[in-house]
From TrEMBL:
One of its GO terms (molecular function) is 3 iron, 4 sulfur cluster binding. The keyword Coiled coil does not apply. It comes from Kribbella sindirgiensis. Residues 7-100 form the 2Fe-2S ferredoxin-type domain. This is Fumarate reductase iron-sulfur subunit.
Length: 253
């Protein structure tokens, strides 16, 4: 009878060398099929024992840093939280995240997201900062509940890879950036909603979203960026009506 250590599964891994390859190709590797091995463990085995030239990103191995996002059998996944046994008997096709330029093999360039993120001012904005000796800005559990879900984003880029709008409209701010903006808009300590409004309400912001919902479906942390976008659409529409009736009125949310 075969033991766990003798079982194997095939990884079909996308390989791409800039300046050498014109397009990615798939290369097959046999790796041990072990009960607790994630896709990332399989790739690490390839790197350590079969092919040291393979390139991929990883850091925490605990589903926290968001570094190891990849396309596994056509779906965006965190490779550290997706297990080989889930795809047995295989093969398992591992490719870089879609909708991003490929740097090498499974490594993608996320500069576009990093450029867009500061545009939504994803930090607490205060008109006047109270002195430290005055104490903390305390919140009730209800106030924390307002934004906590959106604060769970780990910038893994799975939502961008799954988003059909981003694949067609690269100027779209994207799900994660908008969800992070909402995280601060809904924070009782924040006073920057007006500052974020113009960029969020632009054609490249919430109104570009067609509410397919794939971003929320693939989110490994249950952030629900699609819900955040729809929620802000209601806010933006309400604000526009208020401005028609009371031009000087702008609520903080």
């Amino acid at each position: 009878m075969a033991t766990e250590t003798t079982l194997e599964i095939t990884l079909e891994v996308a390989r791409y060398r800039p300046g050498v390859d014109t397009e990615p190709t798939l290369q097959s590797y046999q790796v041990p099929l072990r009960e607790h091995w994630a896709i990332l463990d399989g790739l690490t085995y390839v790197k350590d024992h079969l092919d040291g030239t393979l390139s991929f990103r990883w850091s925490c191995r605990m589903g926290i840093c968001g570094s190891c996002g990849m396309t596994v059998n056509g779906e965006p996944q965190l490779s550290c939280a997706t297990f080989l046994t889930d795809y047995a008997p295989g093969p398992i096709r591992v490719e870089p995240l879609r909708n991003f330029p490929v740097v090498r093999d499974l490594v993608v360039d996320i500069d576009d997201f990093m450029t867009k993120l500061p545009k939504v001012t994803p930090w607490l904005v205060r008109e006047v900062q109270s002195p430290v000796e005055d104490g903390e800005y305390l919140q009730t559990p209800e106030e924390l509940d307002e934004y906590q879900q959106y604060s769970m984003c780990i910038n893994c880029m799975l939502c961008y890879s799954a988003c059909p709008v981003y694949s067609l409209e690269p100027d779209f701010l994207g799900p994660a950036a908008i969800a992070l903006a909402q995280r601060y808009n809904l924070d009782s300590r924040d006073e920057g909603a007006d500052e974020r409004r113009d960029v969020l309400s632009s054609p490249e912001g919430i109104w570009a979203c067609t509410f397919v919902g794939e971003c929320s479906a693939v989110c490994p942390k249950g952030v629900d960026p699609a819900g955040a976008i729809q929620r802000y659409k209601l806010t933006a529409a309400t604000e526009s009506i208020k401005e028609l009736l009371m031009p000087r009125s702008r609520s903080r949310r």
